[in-house]
Amino acid sequence: MFDLAPSETSCADTRVSGPKPHAPLQQSRPWLRALRLLGRDARIEAFGDHTALVIRQTKPVIGNTALLTRAQLDLTPAAARELRALCGTRHLLVNAETPDDADALRAAGFRRMAAPRQIAEVSLDPSSDAMAAGLHGKWRNRLRKGLSSGLFVTRRPLPPSPSHWIFRAEAAQAKALSYQPLPPRLIAAIAACTPGAPQIFTAYLGAEKLAALVFLRHGRRATYQIGWTTRAGREKCAGHALMWRAMLDLQTMGVELLDLGSADSGQNPGLARFKCGTGARIRPLGGTWLSSTWLDTGWMRRRPVTRSERPSVTVHERTCSAQSASARALPDAATSASRSPADSGPRARH
Q1: DSSP 25
Q2: According to CATH, what is the number of the domain 25-118+285-315+322-340?
Q3: What is the C-alpha to C-alpha distance for residues 138 and 67, in angstroms, rounded to an integer?
Q4: Please, where in the chain does CATH 3.40.630.30 lie?
Q5: CB distance 66 to 55 below 8 Å
Q6: CA dist 212 to 18, 167, 169, 244, 255, Å?
Q7: Which helix (H) or strand (E) holds 268?
Q8: 120-281 has which fold?
Q9: What is the pLDDT along the chain (350 residues), one digit of tens a residue?
Q10: CA distances from 257 to 125, 157, 228, 274, 280 (A)
Q11: Whole-prediction pTM
Q12: How far from 98 is each of 16, 21, 176, 314, CA to CA, in Å?
């Protein structure tokens, strides 16, 4: 529904107020600038006491649509009922940030299109000792192995080029592991509009690249976007060495919260364990919800949510150590152009 269309639009028309320093990537200024560079109709709009980034699109037959992804709106049922009217659109798709927002959307008559995912978030403490104390025992042991494996680690700003080697490497990995990465041109657009926002950490053994991680900085947060490794990189725990270096460096760059993305152990248990081992806390998002004139007129018949679609997480936050087996989650309804990287998550094996 929301495809990217490159254009010659510049980044210069993005001086708007609204994005908060602790907002998720999809509500951040770098995301807004990149979407506008690619010709998307993206803007910051007011919703009562809050503001949010809205993406709009008009298509034949479907008509005008709007997308709200991970907006921090603190919705009530009454406020949720006004959302589509405030957006002035026939169809409104909401990727809810919290279970509370999901409850409000349900009460307002939105139809759930996808169940919520769980994400992992790490607070980056100014004290490296405090962060080290939060690492899980096995993760810490693998980190020691990575640090003693003779690896050379570099950090560089990712250049604004969709042909960079990391995108080719991830494309091959994505094909092998059957996942859909974020389009390289979108990450390159972020690099073009906000230089230094994407940072790439690379581990070498001699002249050979063993692993790389890419993070997107936005305000006081950063999002883990790409994780790539080789067989030798896994054997030498290069991913652990890179993640630890990234946690230290990003903290010194002003990042307070690191969003590691999806932590659904049912879909990718190895990646979930890797993220949890950093001391991350797990919390559920609110799922994907639709309000549409087609629903209002009965064109799309409502059906009850089945047992398998019900959210598997009922608490708002819990630690990885207390995490029970994650229930299955349906894929998000938005396409890769507008999906949360934290929802889809890099799926590299570490």
Answers
A1: G
A2: 3.40.630
A3: 41
A4: 120-281
A5: yes
A6: 33, 11, 10, 12, 20
A7: none
A8: Aminopeptidase (3.40.630)
A9: 444 444 444 565 444 456 677 899 999 999 999 999 999 999 999 998 899 999 999 999 999 999 999 999 999 999 999 999 999 999 999 999 999 999 999 999 999 999 999 999 999 999 999 999 999 999 999 999 999 999 999 999 999 999 999 999 999 999 998 889 999 999 999 999 999 999 999 999 999 999 999 999 999 999 999 999 999 999 999 999 999 999 999 999 999 999 999 998 887 888 899 999 999 999 999 999 999 998 876 655 555 544 444 444 333 334 454 433 322 222 233 333 333 333 444 445 56
A10: 9, 19, 22, 17, 10
A11: 0.83
A12: 25, 18, 32, 11
* Structure-token pair, residue 150: 């003779």
Q: How far apart are the first and last CA of the chain?
A: 33
What is the spatial distance between Cα 48 and Cα 190, in angstroms, rounded to a whole number? 29
- Count CA atoms within 13 Å of residue 229 on its CB side: 21
Residue carrying structure tokens 């959302």: 83
